[in-house]
């Protein structure tokens, strides 16, 4: 049981957190033909856009209502109207998603009211899908923006069943958290299809940001789940929610359509994957395909080969709650000790993280704790590169943003196969670090020499056994 | 806010700005606040611009007063390089929450300043104002003043909230903050008659260091670079320089002009992009320094260095010219750098099919016309879709632009090169231009492009889920090659032996673009059209009858 705490300092140093509106916009990016809009000054959009582009190395649709000083004072009605009309005319989207920002939440723009007026004034927009989510920058974090947006999309776009609907037991809704990559979604899709299930992902980033080359150039998203498919999600037999952040959307779906849901807080690791596969076998009524028996064996073997390295590691990890919970639990289950854990926003999973304290803080906190606890593995997003350099410990990049390496969208960590590959990746990092930085020398064990800077000693039993 | 709007007006009233000088009196009063269009705007805000302009000061802590979005979404994302301090890359923000918005954020800001000084002891703190504290009326000038007095360290307010305007305005407001609070507040340890300031140079990818050795060789000291690899003390004492070079012409013109007014430091505009411009810049530096009392022989020594460096660079570029000659480039930048990069490309033998002039002044456009000729294709504002069409239609061989528009080219399977601030290569001076040409060459001649433009050979094989009977027949031991495989080998046959272009590539190009002549095939493929001219003609003849009209339509 971890204690969740918040530091009392006034200045955030080396932020771990990213803002809520871009988390919201990110959710819209998993919808086909979508154009997310941030209702704020043009910088709000520009920073988010740059971040997404650098992470995915993909064109990213994100627009702005371009609020100026004057319109901020007078209210943003006209900016919203112009933005919607402009986008509707120029890029012909299938849906426009509007996320508010700190600027427009502070001046108190009534966006829902504005949308109603716009629909009345412009008949061509009367039934056009316009979804607004309230996501002020000065509250919550990236993950919360995603959570609220997906829930809102469910509430606004999923058709409520009129009478007793025809349910298709083979159809399954999947509500993935924002910590899953396009590769993770594709892996889950394959697994579900292998059980004869037909999944609908909301949002489906694998359709839009997996890095494919479209036939035509469009300024909206180039794939993802379509509006019609979202509308019909009420006909599914089950909803699978992944990550605690998706409880809200899953509940909204159940309330609206009566589709029961099962929440998987984790999909990385042997036991969580077992649980997932068992559930699929149960709802599909099919035996587990031999492919997954083999994959399970491979994961077990990977764990055997890797535990020498991962066992006893002192982990410092900074990530949004669901990713933090998933990765830290998997490594804890492999024998690592979670010595420093920092996250961005409150969540029910935090107190279940296997460590003493989870801090809602920044990378300065993480770096300081990692140093104090002699951690020898750092996991966080790309901004961990500076702390890692100073700490001189192996650094695995996970989460958003990952702007200084390529292939962010194809990092896989779910299911037997994903866990297996992630374990290999982290273990190889540790082996390389030992070879580069911790070769024994004649004085390594001499007691008179000052203790090594790294907290890891060479008398470690696990290391000797494979040396 | 009234002082802020007064300051914006003052910044806009820029006699040194050529674009401004072109305007009528009434237009000038309106300033340059061309309002961005909601729903079709791109580019950063004034805060972004201010941060870009000042962040390269390496020993300064840059503290952003605002909610998490402003710093959390953007920190440590610039490619400027530092020779020493690293504090500038640390992200500091007050991360304002709801309580701060209700009760005001001044106290948190003050505490944040105190924490940074205690923990990191930077040479100075720059405090950036953002939209929300500006809306709720946080007076950062007062907080900074109080903190400076209390802690005895310079704490500089940079009043440039995002919603007042564009990135460019932010650059200027940042310059204004330097003029108001920093420049002239300290004295240099010593001065020399060869001290210069570089203004508006950000040392991206360390490119200033491609030029600095030459200045060192000539005994020219960069007293202060604003702001690439800059130090607080250097800019604070920059008023003792003998002359200044304004590098990125539009972003900090106000700094150069006002330093001329206040401290009589003459400045000239120049660029280190391209051979000619680098030489001009060095000449001008020598000239203005000598005019201000530097030893006369500086001019002669500069000429010697120029001659040596030019010869070296030309020799290196010369080896690329035959390969790059006639290749067509499309240059899409903010427009400011257009003409200087343009000159560099032409030196390498590339042909410019278009350049953006969105932010260029009349004078810039004149220069572009001079370089490109009267039929210069100047693009004011081109929709990504149109750029894509242009590239897909092979009207250009390579695009050079900023990171945000890269995919327009890459998704059309066309070569692209980053020439904006996020780039990872250094392109300055005589070394840089050679670098740029080498990068263009690498991009253009990568064998990958040909593979990417080719459709998958299995498209159409076993279309309807049935195995192809011919393939089965073959496994039964019959000799007949299945038509699909036949087709693959037919298409793989080399047509152009010099540049290894196969029949399939040429056929696809003909079909896609509706080509009818050998020359147009040469334009659209790598085919040389020399010894293979007759073979290409044969293909054209064979295909002219068989082209379905639907294809032709699609090609349009």
Your description of this structure?
With 467 residues, chain A is α/β, with parallel strands linked by helices. Chain A folds into 3 domains: 20-154, 3-Layer(aba) Sandwich (Rossmann fold); 168-294, Rossmann fold (3-Layer(aba) Sandwich), CATH 3.40.50.1980; 295-437, Rossmann fold (3-Layer(aba) Sandwich). Chain A has 18 helices and 15 strands. In chain A, helix 14 links the parallel strand 11 and strand 12 (337-343). Chain A is globular. Chain A starts with a strand and ends with a helix. Mean pLDDT of chain A is 94; it is low at 457-467. Chain B has 556 residues and is an alpha/beta fold. Chain B has a 5-stranded parallel beta sheet with strand order 11-10-9-12-13. The radius of gyration of chain B is 28 Å and the shape is globular. At the A-B interface, strand 2, helix 2, strand 4, helix 4 and helix 5 of A face helix 4, helix 5, strand 2, helix 6 and helix 7 of B. Strand 2 (12-13) of chain A pairs antiparallel with strand 2 of chain B.
Spell out the key features of this protein.
heterodimer, A: 467 residues, alpha/beta, Rossmann fold, 3 domains, 15 strands, disordered C terminus, B: 556 residues, 4 domains, five-stranded parallel beta sheet, four-stranded parallel beta sheet, globular
């Amino acid at each position: 049981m971890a204690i969740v705490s918040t530091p009392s300092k006034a200045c955030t140093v080396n932020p771990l957190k990213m803002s809520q509106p871009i988390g919201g916009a990110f959710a819209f990016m998993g919808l086909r033909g979508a154009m997310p809009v941030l209702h704020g000054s043009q910088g709000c959009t520009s920073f988010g856009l740059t971040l997404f582009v650098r992470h995915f190395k993909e064109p990213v649709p994100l627009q702005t209502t371009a609020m100026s000083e004057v319109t901020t004072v007078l209210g943003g009605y006209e900016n919203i109207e112009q933005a919607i009309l402009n986008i509707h005319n120029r890029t012909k989207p299938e849906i426009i998603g509007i996320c508010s920002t700190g600027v427009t939440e502070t001046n108190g723009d009534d966006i829902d009211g504005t949308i109603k007026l716009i629909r009345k004034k412009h008949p061509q927009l009367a039934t056009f899908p316009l979804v607004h989510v309230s996501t002020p920058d000065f509250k919550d974090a990236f993950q919360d923006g995603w959570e609220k947006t997906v829930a809102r999309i469910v509430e606004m776009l999923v058709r409520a069943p009129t009478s007793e609907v025809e349910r298709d037991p083979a159809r399954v809704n999947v509500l993935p958290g924002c910590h899953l990559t396009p590769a993770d979604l594709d892996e889950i899709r394959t697994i579900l299809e292998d059980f004869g299930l037909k999944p609908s992902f909301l949002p489906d980033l694998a359709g839009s940001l997996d890095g494919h080359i479209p036939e035509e150039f469009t300024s909206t998203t180039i794939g993802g789940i379509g509006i019609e498919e979202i509308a019909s999600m009420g006909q599914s037999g089950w909803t699978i929610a992944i990550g605690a952040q998706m409880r809200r959307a899953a509940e909204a779906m159940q309330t609206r359509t009566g589709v029961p849901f099962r929440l998987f807080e984790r999909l990385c690791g042997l036991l969580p994957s077992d649980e997932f596969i068992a559930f699929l076998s149960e709802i599909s009524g099919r035996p587990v395909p031999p492919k997954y028996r083999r994959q399970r064996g491979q994961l077990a073997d990977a764990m055997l080969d890797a535990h020498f390295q991962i066992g006893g590691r002192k982990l410092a990890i900074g990530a949004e709650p669901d990713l933090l919970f998933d990765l830290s639990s998997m490594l804890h289950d492999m024998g690592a000790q979670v010595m420093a854990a920092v996250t961005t926003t409150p969540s029910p999973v935090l107190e279940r993280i296997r460590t003493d304290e989870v801090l809602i803080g920044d990378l300065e906190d993480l770096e300081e704790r990692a140093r104090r606890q002699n951690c020898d593995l750092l996991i966080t997003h790309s901004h961990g590169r500076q702390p890692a350099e100073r700490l001189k410990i192996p650094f695995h990049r996970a989460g958003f943003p990952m702007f200084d390496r390529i292939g962010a969208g194809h990092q896989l960590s779910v299911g037997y196969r994903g866990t297996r590959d992630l374990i290999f990746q982290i273990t190889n990092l540790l082996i390389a670090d030992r070879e580069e930085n911790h070769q024994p020398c004649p004085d390594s064990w001499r007691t008179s020499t000052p203790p090594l800077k790294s907290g890891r000693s060479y008398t470690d039993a696990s290391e000797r056994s494979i040396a | 806010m009234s002082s802020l709007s007064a300051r914006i007006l003052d910044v806009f009233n820029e006699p040194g700005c050529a674009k401004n000088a072109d305007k009528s009196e009434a237009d000038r009063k309106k300033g340059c606040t061309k309002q961005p269009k909601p729903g079709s705007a791109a580019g950063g805000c004034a805060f972004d611009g201010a941060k870009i302009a000042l962040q390269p000061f390496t020993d300064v802590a840059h503290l952003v007063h605002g909610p998490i979005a402003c710093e959390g979404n953007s920190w440590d994302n610039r490619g400027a390089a530092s020779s020493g301090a690293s504090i500038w890359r640390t992200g500091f923000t007050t991360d304002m929450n709801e309580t701060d918005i209700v009760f005001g954020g001044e106290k948190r800001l003050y505490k944040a300043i105190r924490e940074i000084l205690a923990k990191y002891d930077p040479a100075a703190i720059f405090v950036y104002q953002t939209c929300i504290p500006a809306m709720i009326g946080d007076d950062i000038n007062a907080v900074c003043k109080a903190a400076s007095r209390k802690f005895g360290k310079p704490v500089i307010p940079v009043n440039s909230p995002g919603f007042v305007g564009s990135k460019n305005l932010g650059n200027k407001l940042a310059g204004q903050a330097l003029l108001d609070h920093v420049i002239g507040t300290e004295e240099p340890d010593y001065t020399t008659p060869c001290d210069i300031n570089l203004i508006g140079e950000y040392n991206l990818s360390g490119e200033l260091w491609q030029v600095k050795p030459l200045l060192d060789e000539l005994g020219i000291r960069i007293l202060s670079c604003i702001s690439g690899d800059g130090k607080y003390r250097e800019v604070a004492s920059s008023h003792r320089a003998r002359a200044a070079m304004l590098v990125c012409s539009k972003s900090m013109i106000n700094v150069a002009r006002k330093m001329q007014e206040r401290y009589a430091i003459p400045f000239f505009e120049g660029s280190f992009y391209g051979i000619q411009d680098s030489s001009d810049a060095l000449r001008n530096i020598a000239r203005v320094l000598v005019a201000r009392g530097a030893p006369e022989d500086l001019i002669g020594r500069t000429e010697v260095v120029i001659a040596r460096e030019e010869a070296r660079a030309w020799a290196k570029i010369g080896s690329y010219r035959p390969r790059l000659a006639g290749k067509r480039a499309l240059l899409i930048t903010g427009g400011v750098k257009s003409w200087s990069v343009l000159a560099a490309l032409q030196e390498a033998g590339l042909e410019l099919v278009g350049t953006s002039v969105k932010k260029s002044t009349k004078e810039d456009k004149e220069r572009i016309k001079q370089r490109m000729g009267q039929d210069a294709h100047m693009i004011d504002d081109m929709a990504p879709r149109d750029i894509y069409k242009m590239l897909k239609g092979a009207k250009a061989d390579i695009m050079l632009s900023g990171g945000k528009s890269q995919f327009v080219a890459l998704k059309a399977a066309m070569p692209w090169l980053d020439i904006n601030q996020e780039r990872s290569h250094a392109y300055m001076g005589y070394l840089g231009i050679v670098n740029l040409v080498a990068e263009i060459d690498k991009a253009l001649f990568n064998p990958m492009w040909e593979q990417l433009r080719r459709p998958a050979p299995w498209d159409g094989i076993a279309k309807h889920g049935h195995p192809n009977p011919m393939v089965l027949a073959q496994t039964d031991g019959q000799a007949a090659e299945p038509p699909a495989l036949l087709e693959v080998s037919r298409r793989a046959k080399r047509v152009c032996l010099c540049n290894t272009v196969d029949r399939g590539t040429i056929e696809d190009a003909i079909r896609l673009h509706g080509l009818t002549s050998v020359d147009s095939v040469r334009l659209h493929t790598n085919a040389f059209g020399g010894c293979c001219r007759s073979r290409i003609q044969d293909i054209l003849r064979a295909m002219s009858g068989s082209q379905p009209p639907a294809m032709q339509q699609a090609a349009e």
